Every structure is written in structure tokens, then in C-alpha cells.
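Narrative of activities, Objective 1.

The group set out to show that a structural description can be obtained from nothing but a protein's sequence at a throughput compatible with the screening campaign. Below is one input-output pair from the validation batch, recorded exactly as produced.
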Amino acid sequence: MAKISINLATGSIQQDEVIVGIDLGTTNSLVSIIHPETKKPMVLKDIDNTTLVPSVIHIGADGNITVGQAAKKYLETDAAHTIYSVND
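Output recorded for this entry:
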């Protein structure tokens, strides 16, 4: 399993020579990388070992960010701080 750190403030990757691709969908998203050692594409999996991640983000009062399946529970408990759909 590859771990990659992305600085959310600057968008910079904290590991050298990693290329990240994000398919940001309205319902689910998919993230892939070009593996720095094998140079082959690799789809990243979430903690539940799935590749499709729900397009949901929760920002807690403490500033902690939760994404995907773990963030979905906040739609019911803290909807004001949970992003799940954005329209023009």
C-alpha cells in the first residue's frame, strides 16, 4: 500500500515524483497514481479496500477533515459542515 501526503493548503505532494489523478464525481470519486517505483498506474483504495470513494467531505469544528464513507455519517449529525453536492 502506498501512502501519499498532500498539503491541502498548497496542493503540493509531500513525496517526490508522484503523479496523482483524481476523477472527482458527483456521487463517487476515484484516485490513482503513477507508482514512483514501478512507474505503473495504480488505483488507490480506501480503508474499506474499495476504489470508489463517496464524494463527501466533512470539516469538523476542530479543523479535522474526513472524506468518503467515513464522512457520510456527518450528513445526518453535522450537515452544516459536510459537503456532498455542489451546484452552480
